[in-house]
Fold this protein.
Amino acid sequence: MSAESPYPSQGLDSYQELSDSGEHGAERFGALLPETRRALWRRLAIGQAEGRAPSLTGAVVRGGQVAWAGSRRGADVGAAGGVDVQYRIGSITKTFVAVLVLRLRDEGLLTLDDPLGKHVPGSAAPDATVAQLLSHSSGLSAEARGPWWERTPGTLRQEPGDLFDEEPRRLPAGRRFHYSNPGYALLGTLVERLRGGTPWGDVLRREVLEPLGMSRTTLQPQAPHTDGWAVHPWADVLLPEPAQDTGLMSPAGQLWSTAEDLGRWAAFLARGDDRVLSAATLAEMRAPAVPPEGAVWADGFGLGLQLLRRRGRLLFGHTGSMPGFVASLWVDVAEDVAGIALANCTSGPAISTIAAELAGIVADREPRIPEPWRPMAGPLDEDLLALTGPWYWGAHPYVLRLGADRGLEISLLSGPGGRASRFRAEADGTWTGLDGYFSGERLRVVRTEDGAVSHLDVGTFVFTRGPYEPAGPVPGGVDAEGWRGR
């Protein structure tokens, strides 16, 4: 170990730091302080030792780049861990399948309310909707029919009808979260049917992996890759695990990937890429899609993405496990940071906690510095600028702000809360609510016969320039004597 570095270099450990210069060169954007790097390395080392993992690889993404990566190897079995070494990522595969399905939705080839039977005739769950399958609220069985699908050949289940027994549904559809692996097998079949019979893995490579530069994410392992192991619960000995091709079940957990490729995936899930999927659609995916259970929910599920509340922060991503492997990826959009953890053992490491804490270490020690304020680009629309400022819903003071691309935002003048929303400009001169109470509702600027602005109509809510203006178009009218003292 050198005098300058706090990281071990002997034995089977390895450490790698990746950073990138910022756009303006004022700081090495994504570079982390030595104390932060040592804390990350220590968390990884504790996870490997306490979890008794043959190898454990971790990475942190910040500012859209891998800012830190490390790997600790405790057993000389298979390829050494590292940012470019493949691990099997299990159910993180489902996030890729969900992106493919949302691409089909955005292209107009399906709606989330479509029943599966509309696109996949003859399936065992023809009335399950696309949204229910994505959010695990279809009520379908958790596992596929037959022997343990993760450890047996995919040839045992060659058709969608082979996935379920005589009672495919365990719970009423649309009411509760019930994780369903075969439900995602059906989504893979859906992708294939709507892409003209092209295997879903080929669709994934062409439409997602290649545009994002994820050449080390594959259906089958490609060297260098590590082997999967079971660790005996009561002795420090290993047993090799099989790595089956799961066939029809592959959309539930087949993929292999690396810490570096998953760093690209985390950056995409946080920011979007219009070549693959827009930031707006990804935000839709991470909104809770089923009612959370419990008085105070700690975890939930969106459209293909797990949600986790941890120490006051909201994370999204997914965990994964297959025989011989566990994996986790968590993204914190507010702090623009993500944590990734990969291990080559069936059980042992608290892989979800490790990934979340890698992200948390950076968020706690080096909180995100906001982007600099900049004036909006493009010519200024004076008519829109004139709409900004205070408006009143009855006696409630609100403020309207103008953003980029003619977007509007309405919020309480006094602070957070109220019926606040952001709005997207439409070609017909209206705006559509993107979030909050007015999500999906239309905002219209209502004018008088001479073209002057009369009021704003937001889903029948009337906003006027003054509180209960006597001459304003307030529903129900305003008392003729107006405001008065006692």
Notes: Residues 1-29 have pLDDT under 50 and may be disordered. The chain is about 20% helix and 20% strand.
